[in-house]
Specification:
The structure is a single chain. The chain is an alpha/beta fold and about 350 residues long. The protein has a six-stranded mixed β-sheet, sandwiched between helices. Strands 4-6-8 form a three-stranded parallel β-sheet. α3 crosses α17 and α15 packs antiparallel against α16. The longest helix has 17 residues. It is globular. The two termini are about 35 Å apart.
């Protein structure tokens, strides 16, 4: 494929349209569940620049093409190849992606993220930082990074560290997907709109301000989700200071769901679990999203040199044998010095965000 053709194909991965008062961003890689590439991140950022200063645009609407979901995250096959070969493309991608996440959080106009279907990883980053976040009965929202030897990023530790009690810690460590009610409970979404009503809402946004259109289509959330049911043992177990103690508390509860959660944790990358817990605890103390994203950028770049990232993606996505061989293989073998390595200075992180944004 020649460069011009390749550039044209990449441009089609984000469809831009203005319909009346609303500007639409449609992620258009349905075969890859709309996974984000670096070119897509740049195109979204350029569109937001144009629309921020366009007086004809009242609202921006983010949706995903296809029937399966908004976005499954970043292009982890590309990240796998980059990590395997010692490249720098992933660090460049994350720099622009995290800046976009922060920009969305500061967006001065209504930014309507339609979180229908699967919304994971990078998909959370371009939706859950928006000021109008819609979930449906089909929504499955997750930060599943520990299962591929990575750590929640795109501001995920900022969002989850601010969820009630220890619910966010549970979701960050296990990667468990949640539905509409739990997404709203954890502060990842705001409004529940049944999926059959989405076309009506989007059509109305072309002619009416958001404040008038949205109430016509929002409904009471579905009944409380599983997190509400299990809140007591989640809060108790995840308040522990170490991942080892969290696992011990889960096993000691005598509750079947807690035991299954402990078993789930023990399938994840031990290094990722320990780094994630420390990142979550530190994120609680950092006052701004930008500061948390800077921490996440350091962790993400350090992950490129960790064997677990390459191995995790291999096992889950490349070979799909679902049998990762983590190094180190147990929680007890992951020392404090190894965890601290992920939080050390990374070239360029101090300039990730400037005083001007």
């Amino acid at each position: 494929m020649d460069p011009a053709t390749a550039a044209g194909a990449e441009a089609e991965h984000v469809l831009l349209a203005i319909r009346g008062r609303a500007a639409h961003l449609t992620l258009n890689r349905p075969r890859a569940l709309n996974a984000l590439t670096h070119a897509m991140v740049r195109q979204i950022d350029e569109a937001l620049t144009a629309w921020e200063h366009d007086p004809a645009v009242d609202t921006v609407v983010l949706t995903g093409a296809g029937e399966r979901g908004l976005c499954a995250g970043g292009d982890i096959r590309a990240i796998h190849e980059d990590a395997r070969t010692g490249g720098t493309a992933s660090a460049d991608f994350w720099r622009d992606e995290y800046r976009l996440n922060a920009r969305i959080a500061r967006w001065p106009k209504p930014y309507v993220a339609v979180m229908d279907g699967i919304v994971m990883g990078g998909g959370v980053g371009i939706s859950a930082h928006g000021n109008v976040r819609i979930v449906t009965e089909r929504s499955r929202v997750a930060m599943p990074e520990t299962g591929i030897g990575f750590v929640p990023d795109v501001g995920g530790t900022y969002l989850l560290s601010r969820a009630p009690g220890e619910l966010g810690t549970h979701l960050a460590l296990t990667g468990t997907p949640v539905g509409a009610a739990d997404a709203i409970l954890c502060g990842l979404a705001d409004h529940y709109v049944p999926s059959p009503e989405l076309p009506l809402l989007l059509a109305e946004l072309s002619t009416s301000p958001l404040r008038e259109a949205l109430p016509h289509h929002t409904h009471e959330p579905p009944p409380p989700g599983v997190l509400t049911t299990h809140r007591d043992w989640i809060d108790h177990c995840y308040a522990a200071d170490t991942v080892e103690e969290i696992v011990d508390r889960l096993l000691a509860t005598g509750i079947q769901e807690a035991k299954q959660t402990a078993e789930t944790l023990l399938t994840k990358s031990p290094t990722s679990l320990k780094v994630t817990l420390r990142a979550m605890r530190r994120a609680r103390e950092l006052p701004t999203l930008e500061e948390v994203l800077t921490q996440e950028y350091r962790i993400s770049c350090a992950s490129l040199t960790s064997p677990d990232l390459v191995e995790g993606i291999r096992a889950q996505v490349i070979d799909k044998d679902r049998e990762p061989r983590w190094v180190p293989g147990t929680l007890e073998e992951v020392g404090d010095a190894e965890v601290a390595r992920f939080f050390g200075p990374t070239s360029g992180t101090e300039a990730l965000f400037t005083s001007g944004g």
